[in-house]
């Protein structure tokens, strides 16, 4: 698995969101972007993380941050998740696992001594030039939004 580093250009991708709209990362050059990878819609940790980001949206809007959540569920699952928790940001579909693979966040996980492959909870803060400014690994869902907000304030 290829490991991305801070300072390199973030891999471009093209995919659709919960509403079927197409997004290409390169279309967002010139602005700060957060790509946060999460394992599964509507699970306890992923819900905590998404709601914490939602609750910081006023600050993120002031900081002009574009936010994308990415998981391997389909658009229908993303839409249901976004509506249930009133998520004001875009959820991207990665059914074929191309994006999680490009970003090196598809890997071995362990739960109750069982190993399996899945999405590693990781986020990438991308600067207006398209370079990775900060990588967050082993994200703690409850405090992640505040970490992002504080780091973005320092980096801007």
TrEMBL record:
<dbReference type="GO" id="GO:0045454">
    <property type="term" value="P:cell redox homeostasis"/>
</dbReference>
<dbReference type="GO" id="GO:0008379">
    <property type="term" value="F:thioredoxin peroxidase activity"/>
</dbReference>
<comment type="similarity">
    <text>Belongs to the peroxiredoxin family. BCP/PrxQ subfamily.</text>
</comment>
<keyword id="KW-0560">Oxidoreductase</keyword>
<keyword id="KW-1015">Disulfide bond</keyword>
<comment type="function">
    <text>Thiol-specific peroxidase that catalyzes the reduction of hydrogen peroxide and organic hydroperoxides to water and alcohols, respectively. Plays a role in cell protection against oxidative stress by detoxifying peroxides and as sensor of hydrogen peroxide-mediated signaling events.</text>
</comment>
<dbReference type="InterPro" id="IPR000866">
    <property type="entry name" value="AhpC/TSA"/>
</dbReference>
<dbReference type="InterPro" id="IPR050924">
    <property type="entry name" value="Peroxiredoxin_BCP/PrxQ"/>
</dbReference>
<dbReference type="InterPro" id="IPR024706">
    <property type="entry name" value="Peroxiredoxin_AhpC-typ"/>
</dbReference>
<protein>
    <recommendedName>
        <fullName>thioredoxin-dependent peroxiredoxin</fullName>
        <ecNumber>1.11.1.24</ecNumber>
    </recommendedName>
</protein>
<feature type="domain" description="Thioredoxin">
    <location>
        <begin position="4"/>
        <end position="156"/>
    </location>
</feature>
<dbReference type="Pfam" id="PF00578">
    <property type="entry name" value="AhpC-TSA"/>
</dbReference>
<dbReference type="GO" id="GO:0005737">
    <property type="term" value="C:cytoplasm"/>
</dbReference>
<comment type="subunit">
    <text>Monomer.</text>
</comment>
<feature type="active site" description="Cysteine sulfenic acid (-SOH) intermediate; for peroxidase activity">
    <location>
        <position position="46"/>
    </location>
</feature>
<keyword id="KW-0676">Redox-active center</keyword>
<dbReference type="GO" id="GO:0034599">
    <property type="term" value="P:cellular response to oxidative stress"/>
</dbReference>
<keyword id="KW-0049">Antioxidant</keyword>
<dbReference type="InterPro" id="IPR013766">
    <property type="entry name" value="Thioredoxin_domain"/>
</dbReference>
<keyword id="KW-0575">Peroxidase</keyword>
<dbReference type="InterPro" id="IPR036249">
    <property type="entry name" value="Thioredoxin-like_sf"/>
</dbReference>
């Amino acid at each position: 698995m290829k490991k991305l580093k801070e300072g390199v250009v973030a891999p471009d991708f093209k995919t659709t969101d919960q509403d079927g709209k197409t997004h290409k990362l390169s279309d967002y050059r010139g602005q700060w972007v957060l790509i946060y990878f999460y394992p599964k819609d509507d699970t306890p940790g992923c819900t905590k993380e998404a709601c914490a980001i939602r609750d910081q949206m006023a600050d993120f809007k002031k900081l002009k941050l574009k936010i994308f959540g990415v998981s391997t569920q389909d658009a229908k699952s993303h839409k249901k998740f976004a509506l249930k928790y009133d998520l004001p940001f875009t959820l991207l579909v990665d059914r074929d696992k191309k994006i999680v693979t490009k970003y090196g966040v598809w890997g071995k996980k362990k739960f109750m001594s069982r190993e399996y492959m899945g999405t590693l909870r990781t986020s990438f803060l991308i600067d207006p030039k398209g370079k990775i400014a900060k990588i967050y690994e082993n994200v703690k869902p409850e405090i992640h939004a505040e970490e992002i907000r504080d780091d973005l304030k320092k980096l801007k």
